[in-house]
């Protein structure tokens, strides 16, 4: 039995709800091919990042901290300050500060 909740709208089907129209088949193929190209691009970017992290490590930088800096810089200043305040509160409550 087919789960129709995850299928495209009814216009993508012929008389039978289990058969994609030729138009829908072409659209599906185009979407899958785009996703596959993006996946290849993503793998290439990940390899490039790995090389840059290796270069940074070779120059004496702490890669774990570099990753943390990148994550922090993605946040807005207000969000970062909120997280730091909560972190300080928790550490203080545990007697760590």
Can you write the helix and strand succession as a string? HHH
Radius of gyration: 24 Å
Judged by helices, strands and strand pairing, the structural class is mainly alpha
Task: Report the sheet with the most strands, covering strand number, pairing sense and barrel closure.
Answer: none
Q: What is the 3D shape?
A: elongated
Q: What's the overall average pLDDT, rounded?
A: 88
Helix percentage range: 55-70%
Name the descriptors.
97 residues, mainly alpha
Tell me what the structure shows.
This protein has 97 residues and is mostly helical. Helices cover 68% and strands 0% of the residues. The chain contains three helices and no strands. The chain has helices at residues 22-58, 63-74, 77-93. The protein is elongated and about 65 Å long.
What topology does this entry show?
Blueprint: H1 22-58, H2 63-74, H3 77-93
Summary of the model, kept short:
The chain is mostly helical and 97 residues long.
